[in-house]
């Protein structure tokens, strides 16, 4: 009989990369009794990544430090404490694993715009689930992490998957879309964030007759199946557009500039205020980016590609 063996983590530090998302279509139905809206959306994960470096601790402490690569929208901050959604994700996983001594120092390098409609917080939550599961030897598979992800936020489960996927329910049920091709995007960010809850509330005010069951347009699925960027550009849609424009009218000008500069399609990303423009090629994306940057209305103009994978250890 020797001394009891204490299980120690196999690794002491992991790095996880996690993408942003856009909604190629966002069908929104009438608000449910629980306050959420039924959605019929197609998510695409795009090549704009946050990176989380997570170091194990054995004293049950969870800390977070955030380094942003850009100026935050006015009046906006990313919490560096228990309110950070990456910390909430780690806490939830720890409860699921049932060991209060599990701890971690989480360092987030933020590249995804904050409060921009690109799910940056949700992405960090998905990354923290994947990273801490590895670090703590949790042994949970993606299917086990999904319910935890859904508890953290409606679009967290998609960030575990990535690619192109249909989102149903309140956005948390995710099924992959058979799709072909890669797409070139240009994003125009804003110096002012938009609250998701405020945009949904404005949607309710503007749409008392919203359908109970929203639908994904066939044209969009067909465009993705065919890998046809021109058809995809024509099929982009977002039921939150009027609500976002009602709160931020100047976004209409940005959409117009991109379309006049030849974008195949333009759409507000999720609840906004980031706007997304589809280009036919890398060169076309550069032309669009220059046209958008020259107006000076965007905080930043970013070229990107999609689809890419979800949260991954690197
Ligand atoms: C609009 C979307 C489109 O993908 O993306 P973002 O623009 O935030 O990136 C999502 O629905 C955002 O999902 P997420 O940001 O995870 O929302 P949650 O944390 O679950 O909810 C925040 C708030 O948004 C509202 N909400 C969210 C989802 C939903 N289907 N109906 C809602 O009404 C509720 O008021 C809720 O309190
Ligand atoms: N790790 C995080 N990254 C970004 N925002 C976070 C994070 N944790 C909490 N938040 C809070 O979430 C809100 C922004 O959420 P975010 O996911 O960036 O926007 P959106 O829902 O528009 O995609 C802000 O109020 C921010 O303070």
From TrEMBL:
This protein's pathway: Isoprenoid biosynthesis; isopentenyl diphosphate biosynthesis via DXP pathway; isopentenyl diphosphate from 1-deoxy-D-xylulose 5-phosphate: step 3/6
E.C. number: 2.7.1.148
Record field: catalytic activity: 4-CDP-2-C-methyl-D-erythritol + ATP = 4-CDP-2-C-methyl-D-erythritol 2-phosphate + ADP + H(+)
UniProt domain GHMP kinase C-terminal: residue ranges: 222-296
Location of the active site: 21, 155
GO biological process terms on file: isopentenyl diphosphate biosynthetic process, methylerythritol 4-phosphate pathway; terpenoid biosynthetic process
Domain of life: Bacteria
Amino acids binding ATP: 113-123
Xref: Gene3D superfamilies: 3.30.230.10, GHMP kinase, C-terminal domain
Residue stretches making up the GHMP kinase N-terminal domain: 84-163
Function: Catalyzes the phosphorylation of the position 2 hydroxy group of 4-diphosphocytidyl-2C-methyl-D-erythritol.
Homology family: Belongs to the GHMP kinase family. IspE subfamily.
Protein name (Swiss-Prot/TrEMBL): 4-diphosphocytidyl-2-C-methyl-D-erythritol kinase
Gene coding for it: ispE
